[in-house]
Each structure stands twice: as C-alpha cells, then as structure tokens.
C-alpha cells in the first residue's frame, strides 16, 4: 500500500493531556512506541468479554517534542490511509 507501518506496544490512557515527561519516559522504558487516548475503552471492553481486539492508529502529536501533528496536512493523509488499511484488513479477516 506504500505506507510506513510501525508495529509495537501502545500506551493507552483516557487522561487527556496529562503525559508528564517522567510518565512518558517511564512508558518508553516499558516499550511503548505511542500513546493513544481513543482506544482505551474499546480495549477495556474487549478484555472484559475476552474478545480479541486491536487498533490501527495515525500518529498526530509528538509527546516528546511537543509537536502538534494536527497542524500538518500529512496527518490527514495518514488518517485517510488508515481507513483504507482498516477496511482491507477487515476484508482479509473475513476471507474476501
């Protein structure tokens, strides 16, 4: 599909904008390559009902440098690619 893909552990939280430098560094040392504030509810429900779940994310902001990705048009291109990847993944999982 011609996109960059990074696979790894994501730190998921519902604590909007509460990522301190110390907490970010601790999560990095635990292996997290990204922080996500959208999927935590989905993953919690899946774990509660013992159902497999995952998420496909477009990277927006950089919590290390403070760069705001929502200001970059490339983010919106990545988000569009994300939708294409998600739909293709569902097709493959359904065997179509």
- Average per-residue pLDDT, rounded, comes to 84
Work out the strand percent: 5-15%
Structural class: mainly alpha
Gross geometry? globular
Low-confidence stretches: none
Number of strands: 2
Structure, explained:
The protein has 96 residues and is mainly alpha-helical. It has one domain. It contains three helices and two strands. The protein has a two-stranded parallel sheet. The radius of gyration is 15 Å and the shape is globular. The mean pLDDT is 84.
Briefly say what this structure is.
This protein has three helices and two strands. It is mainly α. The protein has one domain.
Task: Write the topology of this structure.
Layout: E1 9-12, H1 21-29, E2 32-36, H2 40-48, H3 73-93
List keywords for this structure.
two-stranded parallel ribbon; mainly alpha; globular; 96 residues; single chain
